[in-house]
Amino acid sequence: SVDCSFSRGVCDWKQDVNDDFDWNPADRDRGDGYYMAVPAFVGHKKDLGRLKLLLTDLKPKSIYCLIFSYRLAGERVGKLRVFLANNKHAPVWEQNKGKDERWRTGKIEIFQGAETTSSVTFESERGKGKTGEIGVDNVVLISGLCPKD
Prior knowledge:
Layout: E1 2-3, E2 12-15, E3 24-27, E4 34-39, E5 48-54, E6 63-73, E7 78-84, E8 93-95, E9 104-111, E10 119-126, E11 133-143
Antiparallel strand pairs: 1-11, 2-5, 3-4, 4-11, 5-10, 6-9, 6-11, 7-8, 7-10
InterPro entries: ConA-like_dom_sf, MAM_dom, MAM_domain-containing
Organism: Bucco capensis
Pfam families: MAM (PF00629)
């Protein structure tokens, strides 16, 4: 497994320069490191912020599971989407609000064909709300199908 979390991960993260705003580090409640977040008041409604995870050394014709923690806190905070590099138009995962402020776990299976996926993009879309945030943390890539819990 590859640890791509932000505090101690070994992965290559890049801010998209063609979007409307950047993701920023935010301190964790317990004080052990940080996560990446977009506060609700950043930008205008429908503005987008993209954070891209560059993937290297993925084997062709194999399966990987991307596991991550996410949080959508606040009223009408917006949407969080995940895109794979080979399909920029349709998200492979999308969430538009949380039932509460808790962190949840997202899982995405990445099936490699002859061409391997070169990146995963976390996209935050600004909502109408002025409070709260969209956050992502603990991003891990493991070989094989996602565990069923």
